[in-house]
Design a protein that fits this description.
Length: 606
């Protein structure tokens, strides 16, 4: 029995060691899964707003550009929703099924039940999003219209704002909304998008749908890309396994791809490495195992042309919100990975220039350069402190490594509200005081009323009328317990100085444990945790002594002498020392292998 207990202690120590070793071996960074539910309005009003049913070619483009393993589903909706293609991982079979189903897109519906459509498409999403990104792409040309009774329509719209929206916020759902008509409820669609960090656009005509679907897709799915230079030229480095070039063209133009060795590819090219999809307005070309060097597309330049890539050398930008208030600082943080592992090798990183280019579609603004983060090896950081005027901006985050280039695009909306929001955190009471101050140059005195809606997953929303305190409106929110998150939505009504009623925009505020987390150096954070879980040596000695004394005064059967805790402690101590030594050599070996791999990568790119 004594030998058995010793063996148990040995197995326990071995298990701890193997568990520790397995953790060390998992160096790859998990890539969040992406899910996208596509909702297409097929109500009768589409006969007027989309008479040529241009939703079909727009959907075809969206289906063609969806990367594999993204989960996607398509729903049609009018008086009720129906599944066109079930939510599933995208692959060749999924795309074929989706393309075959497109003739079902029509304009025969009676009503526009947006509430039912969003509910049906997100029914499988429950709880927080975890390691996934959830998106809804909603196209409609009308208002919330569930019946001929205006009261029923208003009730449905109210449920969207007070029940569905808070749930989507808690579940991490981003709503990308498109209004295909001046008659659409633009205010509702804009609110749904901005409150969920999605994006909203109004399309003047159905002819713009292809490009708009592509823009919304890029809001939902971030894909690695390389920049297109003047003359439709782009660089392919040896780490790129595949690229897809999307080119918008005039119908009478002929598109060709010219490789670095001057080989020409066109729609009729016979090659297993080339896939070519053409429609009246665009070509989509996919090249597997591309030749490294400078490629060129023989076609007209177009701002929506793009080249996405499949590569082990990834340029990763930390997620950016879609909307910022005018005077809020914008923080950028980026890094590189090779096969999922963070690149920290100075000899490679010091060659890389990372900068942000800003454009509002007309004007170009000075670049913002990212610098190496002194506190986190491998990361590049920068903060934009200067206020940007209200409007929509295209951000191109470019990384130039001399022998390779990467690009990430991001659309940013700058909001300007006549109501400013500030917060004051009380870490001891675990609460935050929110203050809202109106601009007296815009809002008439005594005309403002503000209501807050407190949303927490699994609980009914709570409405709070915010009281006025002098020249501002103020109330205190108690933080939820544990890892729970509370989202505070605001609803404001006011009058302008001219006496016109309007609803000022105030962005939601998130209250969670991160808000109260103290900012400490990384080393200081881990020390208290280590101390918490460390057993004091005195206690161990006292426990071992007490056990030995008890054993010496207790009758024990010869067949079962009981565990020898002193010997077990010695064995455990030896195992811990061995684990520490093994961990040291494993870490050193892993570090040497990582350095060798990154040196090999640098050699390939040089």
């Amino acid at each position: 029995m004594l030998m058995y207990n010793k063996f148990k202690v040995f197995l326990l120590g071995l298990g701890v060691f193997l568990g520790f070793f397995s953790i060390l071996g998992r160096a790859e960074v998990a890539t969040p899964a992406t899910e996208i539910a596509i909702l297409i309005d097929v109500s009768g009003s589409m006969k007027l707003n989309d008479p040529h049913n241009l939703r079909v070619p727009a959907l075809k483009l969206l289906i063609n550009v969806l990367p594999e393993q993204v989960k996607a589903g398509i729903w049609l909706f009018a008086e009720r929703p129906s599944v066109l293609v079930p939510m599933a991982p995208v692959d060749a079979a999924w795309k074929q099924q989706a393309l075959r189903a497109l003739p079902q897109v029509n304009s025969n519906g009676l009503f526009t039940d947006i509430e039912a459509a969003m509910t049906a498409a997100t029914a499988s999403w429950s709880g927080v999003q975890g390691n996934s990104t959830r998106n809804v792409l909603l196209l409609t040309d009308g208002m919330v219209d569930v019946a001929k009774d205006a009261a029923l329509n208003q009730a449905s719209k109210t449920r969207i704002m007070t029940a569905l929206l808070p749930k989507f916020q808690q579940q991490g759902v981003h709503l990308q909304t498109i209004a295909l008509s001046g008659n659409a409820d633009s205010q509702l669609l804009q609110k749904l998008a901005s409150a969920t960090q999605g994006w909203n656009e109004t399309v003047a005509s159905a002819e713009q749908l292809e490009r708009m679907f592509l823009k919304m897709f890029k809001q939902a799915v971030v894909q690695p890309a390389v920049p297109l230079q003047q003359g439709n030229k782009f660089s392919i480095d040896p780490s790129i396994k595949e690229f897809s070039a999307l080119v918008f063209r005039k119908s009478d133009k002929f598109t060709e791809l010219l490789s670095p060795s001057k080989q020409r590819y066109s729609r009729g090219s016979q090659s297993k490495l080339v896939q070519w999809a053409s429609e009246s307005n665009y070509d989509l070309m996919t090249i597997k195992e591309p030749e490294p060097g400078e490629w060129q597309i023989s076609a007209d330049m177009d701002p929506d042309n793009q080249v996405t890539i499949v590569t082990d050398l990834q340029f990763v930008l930390d997620p950016l919100p879609k909307y910022f208030m005018k005077f809020s600082p914008i923080k950028f943080r980026a890094h590189f990975t090779d096969k999922g592992a963070l690149i920290t090798q100075d000899s490679l990183l010091k060659l890389i220039d990372v900068r942000v280019k800003f454009s509002d579609g007309v004007n170009e603004y000075p670049d913002l350069q990212l610098q190496a983060d002194p506190t986190a090896p491998g990361y590049f950081i920068a903060t934009l402190d200067q206020p940007i005027e209200k409007g929509s901006y295209l951000l191109k985050i470019l990384a130039d490594g001399k022998t390779f280039v990467r690009e990430v695009n991001h659309t940013l909306g700058i909001l300007e509200s006549p109501i400013s929001l500030s917060s004051e955190v009380d870490a001891e009471k675990y609460e935050v005081r929110l203050s809202l101050t109106p601009d007296a140059k815009v809002i008439a005195e005594n005309s403002l009323s503000i209501q807050a809606q407190l949303n927490q997953l699994g609980q009914e929303p709570t409405l709070v009328d915010i009281p006025q305190h002098g020249d501002h409106w103020q109330f205190t929110v108690a933080a939820p317990s544990g890892d729970a998150q509370m989202i505070v939505n605001f609803s404001a009504k006011a009058k302008t100085l001219a006496g016109e009623e309007f609803t000022p925009e105030v962005q939601p505020f998130v209250v969670d444990a991160q808000l109260f987390a103290p900012v400490k150096p990384p080393a200081a954070v881990s020390e208290p945790k280590q101390a918490e879980h460390t057993i004091k040596p005195v206690s161990e000695t006292e426990h071992a002594t007490a056990t030995l004394e008890a054993e010496s005064h207790s009758p024990v059967e010869a067949s079962d002498p009981g565990p020898n805790w002193l010997m077990s402690s010695v064995i455990a101590l030896v195992i811990n020392i061995l684990c520490g030594l093994a961990a040291y050599f494993v870490l050193r070996s892993l570090k040497q292998k990582t350095i060798a791999k990154q040196a090999q990568l640098l050699g390939r790119l040089s």
